[in-house]
UniProtKB/TrEMBL annotation:
A Pfam family per the record: Glyco_hydro_25
Compositional bias segments (type: Basic residues): 296-313
Biased composition annotated in UniProt, kind: Low complexity: 492-510
PANTHER family xrefs: LYSOZYME
Matches recorded under PROSITE patterns: GLYCOSYL_HYDROL_F25_2
Stretches the record annotates as Disordered: 289-331, 468-523
Assigned protein family: Belongs to the glycosyl hydrolase 25 family.
InterPro entries xrefs: Endo/exonu/phosph_ase_sf, GH, Glyco_hydro_25, Glyco_hydro_fam25_subgr
Organism lineage string: Bacteria, Bacillati, Actinomycetota, Actinomycetes, Propionibacteriales
Keyword Hydrolase: yes
Residue spans of biased composition, Basic and acidic residues class: 511-523
Official protein name in the record: GH25 family lysozyme M1 (1,4-beta-N-acetylmuramidase)
Length: 752
């Protein structure tokens, strides 16, 4: 198995030496492969050497994992130094990258600590990075390789599962931030490794980085990934992919337990023309701790007998309707043997399918007076029993939609199932209504009134009928302008665009822990790893107040965030009544360290303001334009986000951040001219659904609108204008940030 056919021919240079002929595209093969190291006797040296040699024959860039110290001599044999460079970057790095010297030139290389060592869990692991130039084409791109912590999402779970999940999430955040910095700098990236989480269950890299799609070259059952992200001008195409089975495969062609995965790629200018399309990521529900749900295997579908086959409804996609029937009119529902329910119950179950990503099997419906074991709870409407598989996710989703739902394990009276009662339903039997009272009181809905250990939403929601129609993804619209119309029944669905702005509710519909914001009022020691494990995705830190004040916690907090890989943003508390907008903006800029990949700056516009609306609008416009222009001069593109409840005449292209704290679901007001909020600050540590953030304590808690990707709120690189001076300034900016990052890590190295 060789890959020499695609290598470029050589041309005779003027000085008599051979130089590669210039080509339009970079054309090469990349493979990711594990060499099983544990237990030590699982793979003989001869078998490991055979695997390594096959990898070297198959590809031009090889991403290796699990290269223990005893395998290094074998790597040297399989990748001879005359033809290959194998970059480790650290003495204990077991994730090296090998590349052919005759095809590539190294521009930069480094190994970054991904996971510090944890006793009885893993040794120290690294992200191995190469900045390469393809000599034949001149194309420049980044390569990354890693091996994330194992066992975080295995079934049955490990005893130290919580630690492993936290390690995995922290490592993934660090990895994504690194890839974001490369993509934001405008250069293409290709990478892979052992992510130890199946792509079909969890979108490990996600669907986009810096608003650029992530293109996958692996099947959706793999935990070993190969992926690409386009640059500004150079884009990836996939010509071919292959899988070389390991010893656990159906055709054990290799000795390692993992299958090796190879992608034959091209990197060229213009639109990517993919002969074989990259795979998309399928989202499958997860349990509350972030682990994937176990799904029931489906039976093979019968072959159609008629020539005309009706198109199937996508799994978990509820139809959009012009008119809904009366709520208590009876209908049927379920994936196979449909059961009787009413339309209000059916609408809620359709929404549950959409959130879960699969169809529901109903064991028992409503208005059923024949089953004695149900204690008459099914005699009225609004009650169903569902199949028990994936019960943790099902119960969570049903409770979020407004059901009193419990998982019922096997007993003498029934087989395992999920029992669900709609809380706000006008046709409940009295026995079912009593179960709703028990649910509100925190008990299990049975005769013994035992305590219910399953978490419930707070406040407890109810389902409203008819439901609001879900909006299809729309073409991005500037804030404050009317959005496109809804998708109507019978019409063709519009294609989803590559980028989206918030299109659904005016504010984030779920009050989750996405981000926090802090100031000198939270001076104590913080534990970012605990917060990340709880779901933290971003952190805003107060920088300045008015024209002269600097928050004393800013510099320390920013260092902590960057060290942990948490996107961090700076915010300024405005004093528009007596302050000069331009002076406050300049003070903010001088006191802030805003870098590529950070969260966009935030203007905190609150408190008592006596300015008229038009005066306040002009004040905000000066501040926003001053900050935006100053960052652009440094090669950075960032439109600030505005935290306010005050009406303005112009949004200046800024997104909105609103606050409203309540223990029930009180909606925040959307000030003019905005129509929706990008972020909702729903808790202040004293009032709201989340009062105590792990690792932070009582702080402001914020939810990001689910239709808005986090990358839409991150500082990006100004796209090239063709001006050589501007391009040089941007290159110097990227180099400076790289040096700053190295200097920040020096104290860590001294301690080790």
């Amino acid at each position: 198995m060789t890959s020499t056919a695609h290598r470029p021919a050589e041309a005779l240079a003027l000085n008599g030496t051979h130089a590669p002929a210039q080509t339009d595209v970079a054309d090469f093969r990349v493979i990711t492969a594990n060499i099983q190291s544990f237990p030590e006797g699982a793979l003989t040296d001869d078998q490991a050497l055979e695997d390594l040699r096959e990898n070297a024959e198959a590809a031009d860039i090889v991403l290796l994992q699990e290269i223990a110290a005893r395998y290094r001599p074998l790597v040297a044999q399989a990748f001879p130094a005359a033809e290959w460079e194998v970059f480790y970057g650290a003495d204990d790095n077991s994730e090296p990258v090998a590349f052919r010297k005759d095809l590539f030139t190294v521009l930069d290389k480094k190994a970054i600590v991904l996971h510090p060592p944890v006793a009885k869990v893993h040794f120290r692991r690294h992200i191995t990075h190469l900045h390469l130039r393809h000599d034949a084409s001149g194309a420049v791109f980044h390569v990354t390789n890693l091996h994330l912590v194992a066992g975080a999402f295995s079934h049955p779970p490990h005893a130290n599962r919580e630690l492993r999940v936290r390690e995995w999430n922290t490592g993934m955040a660090k990895h994504l931030n690194q890839v974001f910095s490369f993509a934001a700098a405008g250069e293409p990236v290709i990478g892979g490794g052992d992510y130890n989480r199946r792509l079909g269950i969890h979108p490990a890299m996600g669907s986009e980085i810096d608003d650029r799609p992530v293109k996958y070259a692996v099947d959706q059952k793999s935990i070993d990934l190969l992926w690409c992200v386009d640059g500004d001008t150079l884009r990836w195409s996939l010509l071919e992919r292959q899988v070389f089975q390991g010893r656990d495969g159906k055709r054990p062609q290799r000795h390692s337990d993992h299958a090796a995965r190879l992608a034959h790629v091209q990197l060229g200018r213009g639109e990517a023309d993919e002969a074989i399309p990259f795979l998309t990521v399928a989202r499958i529900p997860q349990q509350a701790d972030g682990s994937e749900a176990v799904r029931r295997p489906r039976k093979a579908a019968k072959k159609p007998t008629k020539k005309t086959v009706k198109a199937k409804k996508p799994v978990g996609t509820a139809p959009l309707r012009e008119h809904w029937p009366p709520p208590f009119e009876k209908t049927t529902f379920g994936d196979t043997n449909k059961k009787v329910v009413d339309w209000k119950t059916r609408a809620a179950l359709e929404e549950a399918e959409r959130r879960l990503g699969y169809t529901l099997t109903i064991y028992q419906g409503s208005y059923n007076t024949t089953v004695k074991a149900s204690a008459k709870t099914h005699w009225g409407g609004g009650v169903v029993d569902l199949a028990p598989y994936d019960h943790e996710n099902k119960v969570r989703v049903l409770r979020e939609l407004g059901f009193a739902a419990w998982y019922r394990p096997r007993s003498r009276s029934w087989d395992p199932h999920i029992h669900a009662v709609m809380i706000d339903h006008g046709k409940l039997h009295p026995q079912a209504a009593d179960q709703v009272v028990q649910y509100r009181n925190g008990t299990d809905g049975l005769v013994g009134h035992a305590k219910d250990p399953t978490p419930r939403p707070s406040p407890i929601p109810v389902f409203h009928y008819p439901p609001a129609e879900r909006l299809e993804p729309l073409t991005p619209q500037p804030e404050g302008r009317p959005a496109a119309g809804r998708h109507r029944a019978g019409e063709a669905r519009p294609a989803a665009p590559a980028r989206r702005t918030p299109t659904g509710a005016a504010f984030p519909p779920r009050r989750t822990l996405d981000g926090v914001d802090t100031s000198h009022h939270q001076p104590g020691r913080l534990d970012l790893r605990r917060a990340q494990a709880a779901g933290l995705r971003f952190w805003y830190v107060k920088t300045t107040d008015g024209e002269t004040t600097v928050d004393p916690t800013y510099k320390k907090r920013v260092r902590e965030a960057r060290k942990a890989g948490v996107p961090v943003g700076a915010y300024h508390f405005a004093r528009p009544d007596g302050g000069d907008a331009q002076k406050e903006a300049v003070h903010f800029l001088r006191s802030s360290d805003i870098r590529l990949g950070d969260m966009v700056p935030m203007l905190d516009l609150e408190g008592h303001v006596v300015l008229q609306r038009d005066q306040l609008t002009r004040w905000v416009g000066v501040w926003v334009s001053t900050v935006r222009q100053a960052l652009a001069a440094k090669g950075l593109s960032a439109t600030p986000i505005i935290y306010t409840s005050m009406d303005l005449d112009d949004a200046f292209g800024c997104k909105l951040w609103v606050a409203r704290y309540s223990n029930d679901f009180r909606e925040p007001r959307i000030p003019a001219p905005w129509r929706r909020a990008a972020i909702w600050q729903h808790s202040d540590g004293r009032v709201g659904p989340i009062l105590d953030v792990p690792g932070f304590g009582h702080v402001d808690v914020n939810a990001l609108h689910p239709d808005l990707p986090l990358n839409a709120l991150r500082v990006k690189r100004v796209h090239s204008t063709g001006n050589g001076v501007d391009d040089l300034r941007r290159e110097l900016l990227v180099a400076r940030q790289h040096i700053d990052a190295v200097l920040e890590r020096l104290p860590e190295r001294k301690q080790r």
